[in-house]
Amino acid sequence: MARYLAGTVGIDQFLDIGAGLPTVGNTHEIVQEQNPCATVVYVDNDPLCNAHGQAILATNDRTHFVSADLVRPETLLTHDEVSRHLDLARPLGLILCGILHHVDDDLDPVGIMRRYIDALASGSYVAITHFWNPNDGSDRADLAVRLQRQFVEMGLGSGWYRTREQINSYFGGLELIEPGLVELEDWWPMGPPVRERFPEERLMLGGVAVKRSPADHCASENLMSARGNRTGGRRQVFLRSARIGG
């Protein structure tokens, strides 16, 4: 997803929330391979992650680590380090990979995401990955229930396996980029799989959505209207399939 945003779309500033400990294949490594001038700000509320991240990235003047809490968007977005290194008046890539499934429903993750999205400039992109419960009576759905129970009831922290509809709602109605909200290895794969995926690995969905400007929306509506007139009124179906939550 980060490679697509930096290389294909041309986004040059990224806010990666819930970054955790830097390992390999990090956001800054991927995007700065595509564009060495890209800026990345990582955010985590774990003091250990922040101390370790700041030490590792001390020599990279385009990558920064900030201590802040996901559930307080206004405080996070106005943090001195965020304001210093990112320009929220320009398009950026907001990345929340593997973090929203740790946010309890009582904290209103939909509302939290709406506040982030409202603060983004038009042309910004939002990338989300999240634990998934197919909720279809299948063996995979049963596995999702068992895994969530292990997280919640057995002292492993938090981990909520949510439905596709719930995960879709976190994009706040933004336009989803093809191939949509899919299993992670199906999102712009770099080649054939090197091995069969474990069942647990297939219980995570990911997607990328774009925040269009009002002018873009009007142009899209006009184009779809013209197409609908030529195709026997299929415009409504096309509109619903082209956007999340539509």
Features:
eight-stranded mixed beta sheet, 2 domains, globular, Rossmann fold, single chain, 246 residues, disordered C terminus, 8 strands, alpha/beta, 10 helices
Detailed description of the structure:
With 246 residues, the chain is of the alpha/beta class. It has two domains: 2-212, 3-Layer(aba) Sandwich (Rossmann fold), CATH 3.40.50.150; 214-246, no CATH class. Helix content is 38%, strand content 16%. Strands 1, 2, 3, 4, 5, 6, 7 and 8 form an eight-stranded mixed sheet that branches. The chain starts with a helix and ends with a helix. 32% of the residues are buried. Mean pLDDT is 85; it is low at 230-246.
Layout of strands and helices, then pairs:
Layout: H1 2-9, E1 13-17, H2 27-34, E2 39-44, H3 47-56, E3 63-67, H4 73-77, H5 80-85, E4 93-97, H6 109-119, E5 125-131, H7 139-153, H8 164-169, E6 175-176, E7 182-183, E8 204-210, H9 214-230, H10 235-242
Parallel strand pairs: 1-2, 1-4, 2-3, 4-5
Antiparallel strand pairs: 5-8, 6-8, 7-8
Helix pairs in contact: 1-2, 9-10
Question: How does the major sheet shape up?
Answer: 8 strands, mixed
The CATH fourth-level homologous superfamily of the largest domain: Vaccinia Virus protein VP39
- Beta fraction: 15-25%
Rg, Å, rounded: 19 Å
What's the architecture of the largest domain, going by CATH? Answer: 3-Layer(aba) Sandwich
**What's the number of structural domains?**
2
Total number of helical segments?
Answer: 10
- Overall mean pLDDT: 85
The stretches of 5 or more residues where confidence is low (pLDDT under 50) are 230-246
Note the overall shape.
globular
Using DSSP, what is the number of strands? 8
Oligomer: single chain
Helix content: 25-40%
In CATH, the topology of the largest domain is named: Rossmann fold
Structural class designation: alpha/beta
Q: Please give the CATH class of the largest domain.
A: Alpha Beta
Give the topology string: H per helix, E per strand: HEHEHEHHEHEHHEEEHH
Ends distance: 23 Å
Pfam families: Methyltransf_19
Protein name: S-adenosyl methyltransferase
